[in-house]
Design brief:
The chain has three domains: 123 residues, HUPs (Rossmann fold); 154 residues, Serine Threonine Protein Phosphatase 5, Tetratricopeptide repeat (Alpha Horseshoe), CATH 1.25.40; 179 residues, DNA Cyclobutane Dipyrimidine Photolyase, subunit A, domain 3. It is built from 23 helices and seven strands. The strands form two sheets. A five-stranded parallel sheet has the order 3-2-1-4-5, with helices on both faces. It has a two-stranded antiparallel sheet with strand order 6-7. Helix 5 links the parallel strand 4 and strand 5. The longest helix has 25 residues. Bound molecules: flavin-adenine dinucleotide, ligand DLZ and iron/sulfur cluster (SF4).
Length: 523
Amino acid sequence: MSKPLLLVLGDQLSLSLPLLQNAPENAVVALCEVKEEARYVPHHIHKIGLFLAAMRHFAKALEEKGFQVAYSHLDDEQNTHSLLEEAERLARAHGCDGIHATRPGEWRLWEAMQDRQNAKIPWLLGEDTRFFTTPDEFAEWIRGRKQPRMEYFYREQRKRTGLLMKDGEPAGGQWNFDHDNREPLKGQKSFPTLPHHRQDEITQAALADAERHFGDHMGSIDNFNLPVTRRQALADLKHFIDEALPDFGRYQDAISDSDPLLYHSRLSAAMNIGLLSPLEVCKAAEKSYAEGEAPINAVEGFIRQILGWREYVRGLYWTQMPGYKRENRLNFRRELPDFYWDAQTDMRCMNRAIQMTIDNAYAHHIQRLMVTGNFALLCGVKPEALCDWYLAVYADASEWVELPNTLGMVLHADGGLMGSKPYCASGKYIDRMSDHCANCRYSPKQMTGTHACPFNSLYWHFLEQNEKRLSQNPRMKLIYGSLNKMGDDKRDAIRQQAESFLRKLSTRQGYGQKHHTQGYKSH
Ligand code: FAD
Ligand code: DLZ
Ligand code: SF4
């Protein structure tokens, strides 16, 4: 009788996995802590602590359910520190004749697993059913579409799942309430505060191990407060629905100088590692609308992020890889500025977004897109350098979701699959949506001179540099009209301002990988 080893990866911590649901009596479930996964980019210490603690808790939950579990600890002497080799070592040790795995979240592992389907101990790969759509279903949807758009995909998902639908029509009479969702903050000083999660012995030991092995990575383990069990993740979900969801919509695009979270959920990491299912999160939000607790613009906006964007980026990832990772349509060549690793910049908005990232392994979507992302776009940072950074520094980062957002949405490197135009903006946008500029040494109103906001000249410089590729885009016509109306003297002055700034920007290659100093640490 065959005896399989069921490999569960660190972001597959869900009892609903078909692999576990259909496990034969004699199966051995394997979880492997390996250094390679913590180091292939220098992950934030909170992210490593999250994976170690959540994997150990999940192993315990499996044992309590009666599964036979084989667990590789970081400190095991025989640990090979490579996921695939470790699974094969455990399979041999437990007399297993096959390894069953679920589609991982990154192409590099998927490819390596597929290459081993005919190995001595063969690998058998199954679909990850924790999403609303499979890669095959998405491939079917995108086939033949010249200009795929998330909005149309999302509407089909609404109809298919019945989420926020009433008698076949969208609840509230519209598919999209974005026009209600662009308010800046109005001087609020306090925001919902996340539940404080108790750290039991398992969590404490996992965090200590993360610190001992990877203490030189970004961040400090002292202020770790991510959910590492399903119970803790459910507490975060309840907190979000009760305290933040009603204001999620209107302040979705707002940025604060003092608060990293505002009315966002911070549920991405828990969903991505499998502690919460996207369906239960959407259902909880839908229920809040049905009970009159949260308005339609908030609930629709929130569900669109999960049912729409999250599924869309995953579909793009699996249908466009491996070529997607090599895309660089705007031909960007610059290395990542050094201050992305230590927040040492006098641009207040950049300093705050990066320092919050160092402190929490979290920044909300608009900080990622319109602050750190926008700056990298305007400077022409090359996709692989920027992608490695986003993959390393956020607790929720996995390539299937990070890559389309960074390479596609931020850098417009995929020819417009993720967005019909680049999300480029000057300091005026950041000034409108945040309270950073009042605390900054630069002025968002000035274009040139020592106090001019760098975003301003970089914005026009970016448009000028990429005119050939972007000016024919119908959504960019207006802005190119403004550029072309500008007098030559003004254009020269802006160009000089931007180029002088770019010349001074320090971008030592590989700085983040090598630079393990105080700069990495939380303040
Ligand atoms: P909320 O604002 O509360 O939104 C609710 C949920 O919607 C999120 O938890 C997330 O699951 C989903 N969501 C929202 N926007 C997106 C999006 N654009 N793509 C996919 N899902 C979305 N998200 C990740 O989960 N992992 C990543 O590695 C990641 N990298 C990103 C890199 C860049 C450059 C950008 C611009 C965005 C990235 N995102 C990523 C998307 C988004 O920024 C995060 O999902 C969100 O900030 C997580 O915080 P939250 O849970 O408070 O989200
Ligand atoms: C991110 C991460 C880390 C830091 N450590 C582990 C680990 O020790 N064992 C494991 O199974 N997974 C880990 N992960 C998550 C993997 O990198 C992730 O499963 C793949 O990137 C596929 O999404
Ligand atoms: Fe950022 Fe410019 Fe505002 Fe300073 S002035 S906070 S650099 S947008």
